[in-house]
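From: lab user (bench 3)
To: helpdesk
Subject: output format question, protein + zinc ion

Hello, I'm new to running complex predictions and I'm not sure whether the block I got back is the full result or only part of it. Here's what I submitted:
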Amino acid sequence: MATPLREVLAGQPRVLAYLERSLDAERAGVAREGGAQGISHAYLFSGSALVEDAALALAKSLVCPEGGCSTEAPCAQCARVERGSHPDVKVLEPLSATRGYLLEQVQGIIADAALTPIEATRKVYVVKEADTLGIQAANALLKTLEEPASDVVFILCAPSADSVLQTIRSRCSVVPFSAADPSAAESALLAGEAPERARMALAIASSAPQARAFLQSEPRQETRRAICAFLARPEAPSDWDALSLAEGVVERAHAGAADDEARDDADDEGLEDFLTKTARQAIVDRKKRATSAAERRALAEAVREVETLLRDALATSAGTSEPPLNADAPDLVAALAARGEEPLLEALEACEGASRHLNRSTTPVLVLQVLFLSLKESLWQPSAR
Ligand SMILES: [Zn+2]
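Helpdesk reply: Thanks, we reran it on our side. This is the complete output you should expect:
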């Protein structure tokens, strides 16, 4: 049977086998006697653009009386999870674009998790972007993750396990996804794109739908071109070049986010008349948050663009046969590889620092300025020649 897990995890056989074993053990009741591993109270899904889709698929398997229906013929429970209206499945995302999850938000989740499920036998919380749980919010969540009510399952999603605070990570069953091959579901979303382009977009964007949007967005493509041009310079760029690159990236992130918002407005036309003033305000507020989330996403993409190029260069200098993520930039990858391993690792470290800071910073332009200045220092140092 094509369960939602099998649909989403077609390209992730180890993850699929692990989750199905746990579901089977749970159903057989083995887990309750402390035998085989059943369903964990908390998972951390990491390492692929697919983790959020997989989290929803697992949520369906947990609340559906059939253990999860195919997307073509879902039961009422599965359909409601898909629409985001199931009372026992909550999908959470950070409320603050700059500070990630707010303490009050996490306190709300904790209070909610203490209540019994309404329709299903379990409550499931999908925590998107768990890497934006700051120290305060994370501390509040620890006890609930450690001793959750027996009918509660948390599924945390993050780009990598390392990006999540260690205190949180150590209380979760970490499920590493492989980033290598796009799964069937990812390929379906990117149908019509050349496989190399799809692969590049999936490595850069945060999810398969975002990868599609990335390929179709002129400002986001322009940012990638600007970053490639900066890294491709044979002579060291000036500090001013680094600073203005950062400004350009931030400006285009803002412009691209405004485009997304305009599209949303067109979708909502005609609806406004029927809404109360409070409901309208709620939509405006949601859009403001969504706009900054879109900006933040575009900035994170810019950092990952640099990161994937550096990784390709490292792989090239190590002589691996893995196909590069940036198949359209072989000259740039070769030029970066020629700078040597140490400068590349140093530059990669700067990217990791920037990713961490972007989630918490109120002034993303400063984070990017620091990043491009350090790239300039690492990659064009005289000893690299
Ligand atoms: Zn179902």
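A quick orientation on your result: The chain has two domains: 4-185, 192-384. Let us know if anything else is unclear.
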